[in-house]
Write a structure and sequence with these properties.
The protein is α/β, with parallel strands linked by helices. About 35% of the residues lie in helices and about 25% in strands.
Length: about 160
């Protein structure tokens, strides 16, 4: 992970048992947030986190709530969405994210895997499409775009 990204928080909606969160921790993210509606899956994610021993390298918050109402961190952020919900919840989630970005502009990347409802994010006023592939899309705030361009120039 490039040094500039270590300070990013990593948030996954519909995190289930935590696999993507563990991969993010292994990649170097130090603050991870998993959101799911199933307390049972979050309990498994917590047990897996302890079993894998990431606790000394990173912090993990597991939230049992509607992703659309999550208080987003004020830090730079990577959001990972694995087609977690329908267009209604996606719209509410994006309203939350856009409000957070308008209140506190910062680098934010949104990685949307299996982007069934990409039209909701495509209409965003705060995130621009950065990369488009068949099975995923990456969106970025203006601050994230600038950071990405700066990193590419130094690579």
């Amino acid at each position: 992970l490039p040094p500039a990204f270590v300070r990013f928080s990593f948030l996954q909606t519909g995190c289930g048992k935590g696999l993507v969160l563990f991969l993010a921790a292994a990649a170097g993210f130090q603050h991870l947030i998993g959101v799911d509606l199933s307390q049972e899956l979050l309990s498994i994610a917590s047990a897996n986190w302890k079993l894998l021993g990431f606790g000394e390298k990173a912090t993990l918050e597991l939230l049992c709530q509607d992703a659309a109402s999550v208080k987003l961190p004020d830090s730079p952020l990577v959001v990972y969405l694995f087609n977690p919900f329908g267009p209604g919840v996606m719209k509410r989630f994006m309203d939350n994210l856009e409000g957070s970005l308008k209140d506190n502009p910062r680098p934010v990347f949104a990685c949307y895997y299996l982007p069934v409802h990409h039209g909701v994010i495509d209409r965003s006023e705060t995130l621009d499409l950065m990369r488009k592939e068949v099975d995923y899309r990456i969106y970025a705030s203006p601050e994230a775009m600038a950071l990405s361009r700066g990193h590419a120039a130094h690579a």
